[in-house]
Design goal:
Length: 355
């Protein structure tokens, strides 16, 4: 029988000690992990997990996490598909293809293109940004533009730069739904889509969680906010386009009867009222008062200035006792014929006997 050499005994002893040390370290790590899980156990929902950034929350700050069970909800998946198909249809000419809302929209690039297409207004920001700071700056500009459009409707904004950039699906869907409803997207949104979100909040240095139900869509009727109701002009354009010229001629005769007093003449309704100048001047003539030039842009250049003019004309109409126009200022600026006809026809019915 051969006995192990001194060197072999020493090597074995060293390996054994190293193994025992690793074993103790692993046991301590497991114990620490078990202790942490035990502390957090009452706070966490089964199947969900807190991400590293949750522990970096400032005091009283909070963030939301989509409950994994809601992520698999068939209605939510259907809603995402409808929104993705809509975006891809709108941006087809840009050769942009969206496959995943979280991964494709978080940096602001697609959102910028989508808003520009829907609003007809190009944003003055860099086309491509790779850095996180650049992406957030782009998002800030895009969201300011979106919120500016929605602000008159007192829309409840369920999104911000951080939530979009952190790929928060609920915030992204809320934003897209607002755009789809405001710009009357030709899509049918699934009804009664709700999700469960986990709200993580840091209080006195401890993370606390709660569960909240978020309603994404309601009924089709309730979601018509921001959409144009069908009226006589929809019927006229759909079923009697041959009579459209008769209506346009009557309206042109009406507006020129008054604008001629300022040596102005209209030949194209949709284009000549798009900057709002003629609308403002027409209201002054109809109500027989002088409008200070500082109240509107006499030679508007930007999209915002034109929208300002049309919105100002709408205010003058309401001051004159008319109901708030169904059309939106942006639609008139974007040369939407039906929107312009609605506004002018409303004036015609109320002032047709005014000299």
């Amino acid at each position: 029988m051969l006995l192990p050499s001194v060197v072999e005994c020493y090597t074995f002893s060293q390996d054994f000690c190293s193994f025992e040390l690793r074993k103790k370290v692993d046991s301590m790590s497991d114990l620490q992990e078990e202790g942490k899980n035990t502390i957090n156990a009452p706070l966490l929902h089964g199947g969900s997990e807190l991400l590293p950034e949750d522990t970096l929350l400032e005091e009283n700050a909070e963030r939301t996490i989509l409950d994994p069970t809601s992520r698999e909800d068939l209605k939510l998946k259907d809603l995402q598909k409808v929104l993705i198909d809509w975006i891809n249809s709108e941006l087809e000419e840009e050769r942009i293809i969206v496959k995943d809302l979280e991964e494709d929209l978080y940096d602001g690039q697609v959102l910028q293109k989508l808003f520009e297409k829907l609003s007809g207004h190009k944003l003055n920001i860099a086309e491509v940004t790779q850095s996180e700071m650049g992406q957030k700056q782009k998002l800030q500009t895009v969201l300011e533009a979106v919120n500016g459009v929605l602000r008159p409707l007192e829309w409840n904004t369920e999104w911000n730069v951080d939530s979009i950039h952190s790929k928060n699906l609920v915030s992204i869907v809320y934003l897209l739904l607002a755009l789809a409803m405001y710009y009357a997207a030709p899509i049918r949104l699934p009804e009664h889509v709700s999700v469960q979100v986990i709200v993580v909040k840091k209080k006195e240095g401890i993370l606390q969680t709660s569960h909240v139900t978020k309603q994404l869509t309601s009924t089709t009727t309730e979601m018509m906010i921001g959409r144009s109701e069908r009226d006589a002009f929809d019927t006229l354009l759909d079923h009697a386009p041959d009579k459209l010229n008769v209506v346009k001629t009557s309206l042109i005769t009406f507006v020129n009867k008054h604008l001629n007093k300022l040596n102005l003449e209209v030949t194209e309704l949709e284009s000549q009222f798009a900057d709002g100048v003629y609308l403002v001047l027409l209201m002054g003539l109809l109500e027989n008062y002088f409008l200070p030039l500082y109240n509107f842009y006499l030679t508007p250049e930007s999209f915002e200035q034109k929208v300002h003019n049309v919105a100002f004309a709408f205010e003058l109409m309401q001051d004159g006792g008319l109901q708030k126009p169904k059309s939106r200022p942006e639609d008139v600026v974007n040369l939407n014929l039906k929107s312009t006809l609605r506004v002018l026809y409303n004036l015609f019915t109320n002032y047709k006997n005014t000299e």
